[in-house]
Write a structure and sequence with these properties.
This protein has 25 helices and 9 strands. The protein is globular. The relative contact order is 0.14. The two termini are 43 Å apart. The chain has a domain of 157 residues. Helix content is 47%, strand content 5%. The strands form 4 sheets. The protein has a 3-stranded antiparallel beta sheet with strand order 3-4-9. A two-stranded antiparallel ribbon has the order 1-2. Strands 5-6 form a two-stranded antiparallel ribbon. Strand 3 and strand 4 form a beta hairpin. Helix 12 packs antiparallel against helix 24, helix 13 packs across helix 14 and helix 18 crosses helix 20. By secondary structure, the protein is mainly α.
């Protein structure tokens, strides 16, 4: 395989010169090669006020009426400034964004490197900087991914770099201007351009044009300007708050709506200085949402991550208890979830209510068997309308299987999902000795019986009383999301659940998930929480960093629009919080 050569005509230890060059590029903008994350209050990545053991940290709330924001003592209205700005930490491209960006940069002529680090979402969003700290192994993976792309460029340089004349420094200079600006998502600074051209000169002097171009590509793809969404900001609006530049707004739009770099139209709008105008931003949002092939997957990814869904492999379930849960069925469940989400978001009614109540989906023979209905197509996918017990996101088998044990249901997991993601009420982590102090359960105990014991257990009951009663309303569905009539003790299923201490509109008992979702869908507080979750996802924030004063105007517009997801995206993009950022103390 061709390797990138360097000016000293020696093959350096793998990656060393390029890492050094990434450092040089980083220093030009005041960034290290892989910058550290600073939290909302200037704390390090290991500190999270939402994780306080007693739930009284900045992330703990007494309800969802603040849209998932803060309470007294946490980040408050004064921190937003008069314009209602918010935090926006420097965040690294996700693996999905990296793949899409490489595809766009090279027009599909180059395959993204497979070694780019992936992120397990667990209970955060995949762009959360805390989850994407670049360790030494991750840095080597980034290097490998960059070299994989550069090697392909070297091998096919005549196709990728077209020159009106000879393949010389003039051609390389033109390539650097175009490629560098698109990769950095803004025009190159003079020092950056000079550094890249110098790198090309050194490599091409001994190894020719192709290797010189490959060296530039490999270096750019490791630079912080490419790997991170870097927002320097421009004009100071008020102390501690800066306006974003047009190229930074274009980048925010493209990675929110397309999970990729800006296209030519966005670059042109940025170059013309149009994106300081909220009306121009809205026009771009409408245009980009209209391209469902690009916006659809990005919005679907948000919905999946909002539901803490990262995929369920066949080996995650007990093969003895669930022999039917094969790799093929797991894949079908994942696909059904995608088709359900896409069906709602591309419909004439792309609302939160529809996400929580729609009974229309698409199924194949495997999913038909799981749902206990006839297959609409003998060998493929077809449209199907299910009954109310299979309506909405929370009854999707993929979601139910994700939030279950290997061999039994998971009221804790399912209840926590509703409490944190739909009510925006963060839960503190369990005590360090929680597993050591697990109470004893009778043999053959049902989940309801186990929950009663757990909720009365010293040190555990406070939090479990907020989660388990909600999760017990999901008991109609087993650990792989299939409907069941009998409990583990042979008795009938008791699907009574209860929301304790939530917003008034949803507090109280319910029977089954269909009734729960209907209550959630009708709640303005839940609608506002969804807006807060999209805000959190957009900026890679943790719950404690979402400022009420920044998200409240967006949430209010979403509620007023009847929970229309497209209207929410427009409101977010037009908001002051989207077009500005708080400058954090470093």
């Amino acid at each position: 395989m061709p390797r990138v050569q360097f000016a000293d005509d020696r093959m350096a230890p793998r990656g060393t010169p390029l890492l050094v060059f990434a450092t040089v590029l980083g220093s030009l903008t005041g960034l290290g090669p892989f910058a550290c994350y600073t939290g909302a209050n200037g704390d390090g990545a290991g500190d999270d006020a939402a994780d306080s053991a007693d739930g009284t940290g900045a992330g703990a709330t007494d309800g969802a009426t603040d849209g998932g924001g803060s309470t007294d003592g946490g980040p408050g209205a004064a921190e937003c400034g008069g314009v209602g700005s918010g935090y926006a930490p420097m965040r690294r491209l996700t693996a999905v964004q990296y793949r899409n960006t490489i595809d766009a940069l090279f027009g599909g002529a180059v395959a993204p490197g497979d070694s780019f680090p992936t992120t397990s979402i667990h209970k955060n969003y995949s762009n959360n900087p805390v989850l994407n700290v670049v360790s030494l192994p991750a840095a080597m993976d980034l290097l490998q991914a960059a070299e994989d792309v550069a090697t392909q460029v070297i091998d096919d340089v005549d196709t990728i770099v077209t020159c009106p004349g000879a393949q010389d420094q003039s051609c390389a200079s033109a390539f650097i201007d175009d490629f560098g600006a698109r990769a950095f998502r803004r025009p190159l600074e003079p020092d950056e351009r000079a550094a890249l051209l110098s790198l090309y000169d050194g490599a091409s002097a001994t190894d020719g044009f192709a290797d010189g171009i490959g060296t530039v590509v490999a270096a750019v793809l490791q630079s912080p300007q490419f790997l991170y969404l870097v927002e320097q900001g421009g004009e100071t609006i008020e102390p501690g708050v800066v306006a974003l530049g047009d190229y930074e707004i274009a980048t925010r739009l493209s990675y929110l709506l397309w999970d990729s770099m800006p296209d030519a139209a966005l670059f042109e709008a940025a170059a013309a200085g149009e994106l300081q105008d909220p009306d121009a931003i809205e026009a771009q949002v409408v245009r980009m949402l209209g391209d469902v092939e690009q916006s659809g997957p990005a919005l679907e990814r948000f919905v999946r991550e909002w539901n803490h869904y990262d995929g369920v492999a066949a080996y995650d379930k007990d093969a003895v208890a669930y022999p039917q849960f094969t790799t093929e069925l797991a894949a079908a469940m994942d696909e059904e979830l995608s088709r359900f989400i896409r069906g709602v978001l591309r419909s004439d009614e792309p609302t939160l209510e529809r996400l929580l109540t729609a009974t229309e989906t698409e199924i194949d023979p495997q999913m038909a068997a799981l749902f206990g209905v006839p297959a609409p197509s003998p060998d493929g996918w077809g449209a199907a309308t299910l009954d109310a017990n299979r309506g909405g996101l929370l009854t999707r088998p993929a979601i139910l299987a994700e939030h279950s044990h290997a061999n039994n249901t998971g009221p804790i997991f399912r209840g926590e999902l509703v409490r944190t993601q739909l009510l925006c009420e963060p839960m503190p982590p369990p005590p360090a000795d929680a597993m050591a102090n697990t109470p004893a359960y009778p043999d053959g105990a049902t989940e309801r019986q186990r929950s009663e014991i757990l909720m009365n257990h010293m040190g555990c009951g406070g939090c479990h009383a907020l989660m388990n009663p909600i999760g017990l309303g999901f008991e109609d569905y087993d650990a792989i999301g299939a409907w069941r009539e009998l409990d583990v003790d042979g008795g009938p299923i008791d699907n009574q659940g209860e929301i304790v201490g939530g917003p008034e509109a949803v507090t109280g008992e319910f029977h089954g998930v269909a009734e729960l979702q209907a209550k959630l869908a009708a709640s303005d507080e839940v609608t506002a929480c969804f807006a807060s979750q999209l805000y959190q996802y957009t900026f890679g924030l943790e719950a404690a960093q979402v400022l009420e004063c920044a998200v409240e105007p967006v949430a209010a517009e979403f509620v007023a629009a009847g929970g229309d997801v497209r209207a929410l995206v427009v409101a977010l993009a037009r908001s002051n919080a989207f077009r500005t950022r708080i400058v954090e103390d470093q």
